[in-house]
Amino acid sequence: MPNKATGKTVPADENVNGRKPEAATEPPAGAETAVADAPRPEPGMKHILIADDEAPIRALLRDFLEGESFQVSEAETGQQVMKALTEA
Q1: Neighbours of 74 (CB within 10 A)
Q2: Which end of the chain is less congested by CB atoms within 10 angstroms, N or C?
């Protein structure tokens, strides 16, 4: 199906930047502990889970959201997201 804005069709094995998607890999050692060690939200406090595989992006979002009075947890992988959601 063509892109409505450009009229171009992106092959199924490429993303919009023309690059092939990266193959799924195993999470880095110790990645599972990032969510497990996250503190439980305080009663009445807004809580948000940041899910991104790039640490600088997570840090930037954490700094901003904590400044807005959110309690923040982070997840680097989809597995960590699912674990955090099932434990919430």
Answers
A1: 20
A2: N
Supply the pTM of this predicted model. Answer: 0.52
Provide block-wise average pLDDT over 10 residues at a time, the chain (88 residues): 60 56 56 55 80 96 94 94 88
d(CA 54, CA 22): 15
d(CA 15, CA 29): 28
C-alpha–C-alpha distance, residues 28 and 63, integer Å: 24
- What is the enclosing helix (H) or strand (E) of 47? strand 46-51
Can you give the pLDDT at residue 87? Answer: 85
3-state secondary structure of 54: coil
State residue 45's pLDDT score. 76
Cross-strand bridge partners of residue 75 = 51
Cα–Cα dist 44/23, whole Å:
40
Q: Are 25 and 70 in contact (CB under 8 A)?
A: no
